[in-house]
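Revision sheet: structure tokens.
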Amino acid sequence: MMTEARKETGPMKATAPSRWRRTVNLAALTAVGVLAVAGCGSGDVITYDLPAQSARYSFETETNGVKTVWEYMSDRPAKPDTPTSQPCIADAIVKDPGKCRPEPLIFLRYDLGLELDNTAKTGGLHPITVTGYYQDRLSKPPTVTELRVEASVDGGKTWQPAITTRAAAQNTFTAQIEHPKRDEAPGGVGLRITATDSAGDTVKQTIPKAYQLR
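Predicted:
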């Protein structure tokens, strides 16, 4: 009996840049000794053999200084749950893998409203947008219900909550971050985002240096 998690890489890699903003996709997944690897992993997928009892599990990764921790409920699949167009990797590489299902991990996508040099104006309030999403392979993903945004201007020594955080659309939230003067944040602005979904699963992503002030 297998569960499966997609490995996503490329933290701090901007996609679809425009003159006015960059959309930054910060997401990575690495298995960290919480679940025993029973099958095999590829560059895209890691498979695990789970016990039948439902339990809360944790994944933790750190890539290029970006730390992400997932906590979620899981158990041994009672039936397979993968699209026929994207079968479980274990079906191809593991002998008698059993039933397979992707894990309900929340990933985060950011629109930080930055200029092309990854900077934002100093002083005043700065809006950002954060969207939670799941693997396409997950047939019935939960809904992200809560999002907390915190910012740091001293390299992560202290964190302050965003001035406001509001739901903008399904799984999407906007927040207003208060920027100090540039000389008060010489190392730039760090972000710490915590999201919770309707199943009680969570993700916390810490980005020590998300962008610079100008």
